[in-house]
Amino acid sequence: MEKIPKKLLKNDLWQRAARHFGKAGRPSESAAAWLAAGHDEEAISALIQAGDRTQATPLLLKAKRYKEATEQAHLWLKELAQEPRRQAEEKIRARLILAAALHLDHQPDQAHAAYDTAREELTQGTKKSPPLTNGRNWEALAAYGVRVKRPDLIRLGYEKALTAYGQTFNLQRLRCAGEYLENISEDFHLTKELKERLAGWQPQSSMKRERERLWEALAKFTGEEN
Amino acid sequence: MTSLSTILSEQAAQITPHGTPVRHSERVYCVTFSPDGRYLVSGSVNRQVNIWEVGTTELSDYMKGHTKFVWSLAFAPDGKTLASASGDGTIFLWDIETRSYYRIEESHYAISLPLYGVAFSPKGDYFAAGCLDGIVRLWSTASRRPPWKLKGHKNEVYSVAFSPDGRFLASGGNDFTVRIWNVANKNEEEILTRHGCRVTSVTFSPDGRFLAYASTNTHIYIVNLASGESQILSGHQGLVWSIAFSPDSRLLISGSNDYSVRLWDVESGRQIQTLEGHQDDVNSVAFSPDGLLAASASDDRTVRVWDLSMFNERPETYLRLVANQEKETAIDKKLLHFINTHRRSLNYSLEPLSNPETSVKWLRSTLKMKSPPPLGLVHDLGLNLTAEGSDFLNLSRDDPPYHRFLLELRSAPIIKELKELKLNAGEIGMLIAQLLEGAKFSDSCPAPEDRPLIQSCRLLEAALRENRSKTKPPDENRQRENNKSPFLNSKDLDNVKRRLQDLTKSKLRFLKDLYATPKESWDADRLAEMIPLDSLPPTLTDLYSQLLTITPKLTFHDHRGSQTSSCGGYHGLTHKGGLDNLALSEYLYPDALLQHRILNREALYYGREGEREKRRRMTLIITQSGLEMSGTTNHLARAMTLAAITILRNLGGDLRHSFFGSCWTTPSDPLKHNNRQKLLSWQDNEGLNLEQPFARLKEQLRTWQESYHRLDVLWIIDRHFAADRRSNTLKRTIKELHNLCRHRAWFISLGPSSPVPPATDFCHHHKQIIMQNGKIKLL
Prior knowledge:
heterodimer; A: mainly alpha; 12 helices; 81% helix; B: alpha+beta; six-stranded mixed sheet; five-stranded antiparallel sheet; 39 strands; disordered N terminus
C-alpha cells in the first residue's frame, strides 16, 4: 500500500473538518479549519459569514479583492461604533485596513483621509491605551506600510510595537520581531542590528513551558542551533 | 608622459601666501603692481588709493581725492602715473612721486556717472574707462581734450583693456558682449556675444595671442586671436570678478565670489591650483611684472600676495622635467637638498634613507595633520609598512623601544594585505597619517608661516641636533635614553600599534577608494581627517567607499539668476543709495524730473549696499533622524551628511548641521570634533514629528535671513519624508519655508527605484540615492 504524505493527510482532515463545521452552522471554526488547510478563499467566505472582519479584511487584501475589503472595513467600523469597548481596541486597525484597501484601489484622497485619522488616533491612543493594544496598533501601522510599500512606516511601526510590548509581553515581542525580520530582509544592516538585539533579550517568564517556547523562537530568529 | 600642466599643477601645490595679508579698513575693490614691481597699489571703499611697498605689510602712503569708492586702477607704462576710476564719476591721474593729481570728470545729465574699469595703452598715449551709461571713453594722454565716446554697449561697461600693440581696445560689460574697438579710427571692429552672460573682466595676453574675459556664468573664456577658437576655463563655483595674465602669458589668474583665487595653465586650459585664504569675494587679481608674485584684493578687507617663485626658473625647469619624465617632478628641490645633506645622519632608521623621493611622497599625504610628523618618522613607518618579508625579524630585549616598534610593524597581519592591495605612495602616506592621527610632535621650532614640508624637516633636524649634542652617557643613563623614542612618546607608540592591529582589509580598501576619488571636487585628505579610522563603523566601510565614489557627481553649483551689479549683486530696488548705484531706468527721466526724484527720495537705487553688509553664505544641512531612519537608511544618511559637509566646507561660508526627527536639534558647527562624533552617534528613539520642528526651523531661518546674504538648506532624508503632511497649518509652514531660502534634498531609498517621484514640493532641486543589492546609485 502506497504511503500517503502526512501533509496531504493533514490537509484533507482540515478540509473535512471545515465542511463539517460549516454544515453545523459554526462558521468561525469552519474558517479556522479552512485557513489551516491553506484555502484562503473558502476561509474568507466563512469569516464573512461569521462576521469576523478582523481576519477577513486582511485576507481580502491579500487576495487583491480591494473593493470587498473596503466594504468589509466600512462595515467593521460601523459595528465598532456600536461597541465602545471593542472600538477602543480595534478602530485604528480597521481604519488602517480601510486606508490600505482604498489606496490599493486607487482612491488616494479617501485613503489619505482614513490614514490621517488613523495616525491621529494612534498618536492620541498611545498615551491612553494599554501596552498590548498599543503594540497591536503599531503593528497594524507596520502592516499598512508593508501593503502600501512604505518602508519608513514598517520601521516605525515595528520599532514602536517592540517598545510597547517591552519585556512584559515576550511572546508578542518575539512574534513581532519575527514579522519585522521578514519584512526588512532587503535591509542588511537593519536585519543585522535586529538579530543582535534579539540575541540580547533574556526571557523572563517563570513558566517553564513558555520559557522553553521563547528560547526556541529566539534560536529560530537568531539562527542558532540548540 | 606627464603633461606640462601636470608639472605646473604639482609645482603649484607649493604655492603659499607671501607674508601676511595686507589689512585694510574697508573692502578692497582693485589692486595692481607698479611696472617696476616696487609698489602694490590698492583701491577700496574708503575712497583712498593705498600704496604698499612689496614685501611689507605696513601702509607706505595713501592718496585721497575721490569722494566715492575706487573701482579700478591702472599704471601708465612709465610707472610714474597712476589712473584711478571711481564711483564719483572721476578719473584721477596721480603722480606717484609727488602724490599730486589731475582730475578728469565726465558729466552726464548733470550727474556724474560711476566709472568702472580703467586702462592705459601700452605706449601710454591713451587711457580708457568704462562707464555706467555703456559708453567707453577714450582720452589722449598728451592733449587732455574731451574724450572720444565709443558707443555700442547697451549697458554698463565694467572692464576695458588695450591690446599689447596698442591698436585695439576691448571692453566688456552688462550687455553680455565683449566689443573690440579700433583705437586709430575709434570704430567698433568686432562683437563677441557667445557666452550669453555679463562680462566682468577683459584682458589681452601680453604676447598678444589671446583675449580672455570672465563672465558671471562662472566661466573664463580665452579666445585665440589668430585662429578665432576659444576655450572655456571652468572650475569657479561663483561668478568671476577679475582675471589677469602672467607677464609670460603662460598663466592666468582669476578671482571669484566663491572666495577663491585660481591659477590656470593657458595652453591646456587646466586649472593648476586653487589659492585659498580669502574669506569673502575676490574682487581683483594682478601679477607682478616679474611674474613671481600675484596679488588678490577681497571684500574680506585684505590684499593677499601669493608667492609664485617656483615658476622663477620655469624654462629650465620645463627642460629638466620634460627630459627626465621618469623622475617625480613634484619634489621641492630645497627639500631634496636638505635630505641629501642629512642623509648620513639619519641613524634612527633601520634602513638608510636611500630613496628620499619616496619618503617625500609619503610625507606629502601626512601634511594635512595638525602637527606634521618629522620626515624621519614618516620614512621609518613607510619603509617598514612596505618592507619585503620579515624573515630577518629577530627582536632582542636590548633593542630600544622605537626599534622594536619598527620591527613589530613588519609582523602585523595587515602587512600582507597591504602588499596585495598594492597601495601607491600617496595611499601609504595617507595610511601613515591615519596611524599617527592625534600624535604630538615636538614644537621646538614653530614656524606657522613656513611650509609644512620644511617644518617637518626642521623637526628632524632638531631631533638630530639633540642626538648629536649628547655625549656618551653612563650605562644606566644609556638605558634610560634607550627607552625614549626619538619621535613618539610611549602612549603614541601604543596608539600606532593598536590602530595597526585594528586595521582590516576593508578599511584599507576604503582608504584606497578615498584616495582615488577625483580631487577637483573632493578633498580626500580632509575627508580622511573627518572620518578617522578609529570612529569608522567597521561594517560600514564598503558603504562609505561607494558613497565617496558617487558623491563627486553631486554639485552645489547654483545661481539665483538675479541681475548682478558690478559690485556684488543686488536683490531688489530701494529708495536709498548713492548716485553710483542709481537704477538705470532713472536715467530715462528728463534731467529736471530726475533731480526732483532724487531730492524727494522717489528715485530707485540698486539695493546693493544693504546687501553688502550680509555677504556671507550660510548652509544648513538637515539629516533626518528617528525610528523611520533605522538600519541602512540611517547609515546612508549619516555618510551622505559627512560627504556633504566635506564638499560644502570647501565652498566657504558658514556651515551648520542639525537633525530633524521627533525634534529639531539646534544647529551646530559640524567641523568641530565633538559635533562630528555626535553626527555618528546621535540616536532619536521616536517617530518623525513635523509641525514643531518645522516651526522652529522657520524661526531659525528668519533669524539667519537678516544676517546672511545667501541661505541654503540641504535635506538628507528618506524618500517618504513628510509624505503624510496634509494639515493646512503644515502646508502653510512648508510654503513659508520654501520662500525663506533655497531647499535642496537628497532622498534616500532602498530597493528598486519607484516611478513615483518623492515628495518634493518644498524643495527646489532633489536627487535620489538608491541602494539596491548592496550597490548605491544616484538618480
